[in-house]
Amino acid sequence: MKATAVRVRRALAMRSGDGLLRGAVWVLLALVLATLVGQLTGAGGRPDAIVGPRLQPPGSGWLLGTDNLGRSLLPRLLQGIGTTLLLSTLAVACTAVISTALGVVAGYRGGRTAELILRIGDVLYSFPAIVLAVLVAAVLGPGRTTALAAIVLVTVPLMTRMVGVAARAVARREFVTAARISGVSAPTIMLRHILPNVAGTVAVQGTYALSVGILVEGGLSFLGYGVQLPDASLGLLIQEGGLYMVGAPWLIVAPGVVLVAAIMAINLVGDSLRDRFEPRETRSLV
Amino acid sequence: MRRSAIIVGCSVALSAAVTSCSAPAATDTAAGQKAPKSGYLATSDASFKGSGPLTVQLDYDTVEAGGLDPQTAATARSWSIESLVYEPLVTIGPKFEVEPLLASSWKQPSATEYVFTLRKGVKFGNGRALTTADVVGSLQRLLKSKAAYAAQLGPVKSVTASGPDQVTVRLTKAYTPFLAALANTPAAILPMKEIDDGSLDIKKEMLGTGPFVVKDHKQDQYWNFTRNTSYRDAENVRISDLKIEIVPQEAARLAALRNGSAAFVNFNNIDSMDQLTGTRDAEAVSQTNSDFYYLIQNSKNPDSPLADQKVRFALNSALNRKEIASVALGGQGRPTGVTPSVLPGACDPAKLPAATARSADPAALKKAGTLRLAVYTSEPAVGQIAQVIQQQLAKAGVTVKIEKYDDTTFNSKVFGAKPDFDLAIGWFAGYVDASMVSRWWNPVQAGFSSTFLNDDKTLDALIDDAGSEPAGADRTKTLAELCARVDSGAQMLPLVTRPSVVGYRTDRVSPTLRAAEGYGNILRDIAHYTLPDAK
Amino acid sequence: MDHIRWLLGRVATAALTMFGVSVLIFAAVRAMPGSYTELVLGPLATQAEKASAAARFGLDRPVVEQYWHWLSNAATGDFGTSLVTRAPVAAEFGDRLPVTVTLTALALALTVLIGIPLGVYTGTRDSGGRGGVLGRLVSAFGMSLPEFALGSLVVFLFTRYRLGLTVGNYVPWSQDPLGSIGSLFLPACVLAVFCVAATARTTRDAVLGVLVEPHIAAAVARGEPKGFIVRHHVLRNASVPVLTLVATLSAYLLGGAVIVERLFNVPGLGSYVVDGLDRRDYAVIQAGVLLAAVVFIAANLLVDLVSGLIDPRISVLAKGAGS
């Protein structure tokens, strides 16, 4: 009776959780749409053009105000959202491919192969994330490629480990054993049987990696290793805006709100995905 | 780059103010203050009778291969910090005139001979009196050293003690900037007896005749100075303990000034001045420097369009220095030629060839193609200047791609053995004589620039003339020609002067701040600051 | 016996990981463009001067020899000399470690004191549905505030208005223990926001996971009081993932609170290492990364051991999963 009540409660939580999910998805869609519209129509003008006096509050020529060089914030914000989302998505796509491949192999093969893969992951995982990111930036020089590489290196180890654990569990199940005994080749087993069963884990971890990626990009910008000038990213805009908090608060408020909203929406999507795919999975990406 | 920006600059000067120096307009956000003396942004309030500690915050510490040895110090930051302990023979006045310091007076019997009379009653921090041997030994040590600054003293033939309190310096030929070059920290007088007998390791400790002595120092964290009780004017130094904290983050220094945990800070973003709005008792001022930003056009790469002077000059013509100053520096910098525009005798940047050219040569601009512009991260203004330049050249049809590097990478890309850049922005200390910094346009003398700068014999001759001609109409004309030659050669282009922004708490300290500074010493005159009475 | 063998294996892999970290960091710092000699000697230095500076710091020897020299010294606690200050790196770490440890301890205390009860509360609350949504929203929000944005805001608010606490002036422990904690409180709070949110979420999930297990239903059926069930069944069973997370968080805090240290002007380890990176101060970077890795690996080892005690099944599982 009470156990049933607990289940009902969980189901309720799931349902209202779906409301959150919907909200989160709408936020993300709105951000992507804004970027696309901005890029395609050139709304608000060129992001790097100097259009007016410095540090003007929002007004007719510059809907969100101007920055310290007299550029309109609106197109820069749109460009920044695009840069940040694209960069993180691309990086996480790379992470997902690498981690899934390594994780599935490690999980299926086990033994020395798994040891090797997981130990290499551990080495990277043992580096403090921001130090690793700055190190990558110092070696490669700042820019998009660097931010991409840094995000991948920071997110790959944990995701590989998580996929590895999930793949290991799948590899022990009877249908895998059965396939192996009946002579199905290892690549086929990994592709046909294991991969589909770890897809949930990949989706969940990938979502969290996305929010970590945005944070890493912001941290790099803050420390001076972000995208190249005059490109904008959300992290860079916040870092620049922070210098003008008193005199020109609009420079930090708009990108700040957008950044927090984006990360939050991604986290909520991740939560929902996790509830769906791995109701018992409790590890999270930090 | 902030650390090695150095270097480069030296000065000279001279004799006397040739033309009247127009003190630059200072932006003083404080409206209600008494008008400071001419040449000053603020002068210490003599009615303040207090005494006690003062906390200063700076964005970075001195870092030099030669440790704390002032003779090998190559950055303005080192000069500032070390000037708290060390003093040279002469110093610089508010209008760039040379004034007595450890030398109470000097005579110049001929164009190549200077006789200094030492001030009486000067003692080192350990109580020992200053002797002519210290002066002779220090200058000889500097000249013998490989320090970059040694070259700035000019063609010195001999340094000798010519009396119980007299030192004579002879030059092989006239050198106008000699006294001005002596007025900077690397030419400070060191305790030669202690250095020679090995009781002082000058790379690790400081012992000078100045107002403060070091209590302790933690690299990149803090300096603790106390009043030097042996200082000749110790009773008038109001700061009993001077703490300098190293705080890299601009927002953190701003915060310290707002909440009063620091009484005096430097800013490297000009807009930080506005951030103090609404904070009682805090004030920020912008000091004009002879230091200036420059744009290098790498002319030594034969495959680059920049090897062609016509292309370089066309790009120069497409630049608008006024806009750079007003947009990238919020109006706090001013256009300059190779003679820093705040110095006496400087040329007028509005009359340079590129500025007067009716329009940039379109054919040459077409050849420029896409150019890479290297900048470094530690100074936001550099990135801002780069973006304004990018816009200006875009209007002229030239695409510029900005490449921002951390300081070390920037140095190796630009100043390394194999330069890897098309355009780069940096800054030079401008010093106090209009001809001195131009020395860096002679790659043979400068050394560091020979990898990206072609030697121009005509320019070299103008640089030499400017160094040896006495101040006057002839020299002003030489300086104007020098500026024009640099501008049309367009290899290394002076852009705009580089301001220093400092903030202070009016309830903690009444500082003396010059309107213009040549050696980048924001701590100059700190021994004269007054403090309010303790409550 | 099995346990001992497992433990030995675990320690051996930890040592192997450390070795990997040491090789990687050593190689990485040398792959950075620009060198210390170029940076400090400046553009005016001649090749001969650069060579002599390199020789002074042993930078002219073969890389493998440098590596071996460094590693064997590091094993004895000698991490070399900072190229910039020429002081032993170990001494500087000794000065900065207490700062970082205090900051981490404060942030962790907040995390544990707020995050875990919050997670348990939202996980067990009667109106689970709404509690779940609220808890989820709050933790998602907390995890979405980047340190650099939140920190800037806090610094601004606390300096612009008089709110009781000052920012930016760190007080050393030796000077005034209470004042020291006070001066680290705000940065600890900024760090804690993310950690609290992450811990609350993990705790809530763990609690929810345990709640649906049959033995809880059985306890409920036996009529055991709710508080008792939570304390005796739920918490114990939910503690392993929470413990793992807290260990990861503590290692993360010890290794790199760089941004918060910069913003609040705290002389901790993270900013020292990043400054070292800017300066190509090899010994500092290497020692910093090695130290952070030791902490991280040790924390994980510890968690494995403790988890094994709480739930003996873990060690077997962990072995099975190869981690």
From TrEMBL, chain A:
Top-level taxon of the source organism: Bacteria
Main localization, broad class: membrane
InterPro entries assigned: BP-dependent_transpt_permease, MetI-like, MetI-like_sf
Spans traversing the lipid bilayer: 20-38, 85-108, 120-141, 147-171, 247-270
Subcellular location(s) per record: Cell membrane
Topology in membrane: Multi-pass membrane protein
UniProt KW keywords: Cell membrane, Membrane, Transmembrane, Transmembrane helix, Transport
CC per GO annotation: plasma membrane
Family designation: Belongs to the binding-protein-dependent transport system permease family.
UniProt name for this protein: ABC transporter permease
Organism, scientific name: Streptomyces shenzhenensis
From TrEMBL, chain B:
Limits of the Solute-binding protein family domain: 97-442
Bilayer-crossing regions: none
Protein origin, superkingdom: Bacteria
GO molecular function: peptide transmembrane transporter activity
Listed Pfam families: SBP_bac_5
Record-level GO BP terms: peptide transport
Location within or outside the cell: Cell envelope
A cellular component term, taken from the record's GO annotations: cell envelope
Entry keywords, A to Z: Signal, Transport
PROSITE patterns named in the record: PROKAR_LIPOPROTEIN (PS51257)
Broad class of where this protein is predominantly found: other
Signal peptide location: 1-25
Stored InterPro entries: Peptide/Ni-bd, SBP_5, SBP_5_dom
Protein family membership: Belongs to the bacterial solute-binding protein 5 family.
Name of the featured protein: ABC transporter substrate-binding protein
Species per Swiss-Prot/TrEMBL record: Streptomyces shenzhenensis
TrEMBL record, chain C:
Transmembrane portions of the chain: 7-29, 101-121, 133-158, 178-200, 240-264, 284-303
Keyword Membrane: yes
Places the protein is found: Cell membrane
Cellular component, GO annotation: plasma membrane
Keyword terms, alphabetized: Cell membrane, Membrane, Transmembrane, Transmembrane helix, Transport
UniProt cross-references to CDD domains, sorted A to Z: TM_PBP2
Membrane topology annotation: Multi-pass membrane protein
GO MF annotation: an example: dipeptide transmembrane transporter activity
Pfam families attached to this UniProt entry: BPD_transp_1, BPD_transp_1_N
The keyword Nucleotide-binding is assigned to this record: no
Start and end residues of each ABC transmembrane type-1 domain: 97-303
Membership in a protein family: Belongs to the binding-protein-dependent transport system permease family.
PANTHER family: DIPEPTIDE TRANSPORT SYSTEM PERMEASE PROTEIN DPPB-RELATED
Protein name, as recorded: ABC transporter permease
Organism: Streptomyces shenzhenensis
